[in-house]
Amino acid sequence: MNRTALEQAAERFALGQWLSDYPDGWSYQTVIDCLKEDCQVGGGFIFEKDEDEDNPDTIFPWEAVENYSGEHIAEMIDDSRRAFIGHASDLLATQEN
Prior knowledge:
Layout: H1 3-18, E1 19-21, H2 28-37, E2 40-41, E3 44-47, E4 57-61, H3 70-96
Antiparallel strand pairs: 1-4, 2-3, 3-4
């Protein structure tokens, strides 16, 4: 697994740990940036890509963290991503030896 594939797997893992749903096609960074803006509406985080859009995209955190700020959830997601990369890198290095 190359570094890019590892990073992509880490991002998917981290998002899945803290979010029950987020818009298809959004990059990891787009989700993080949206959460940092902390635009909470009705239990979901809302982010409008275009001002004219009638149905904005929504990010839903898991129930256990739904009352946390978007900034806090973004930090937890990024911590999970970094931990995944660190542990997976250690495992891959062990297998190479």
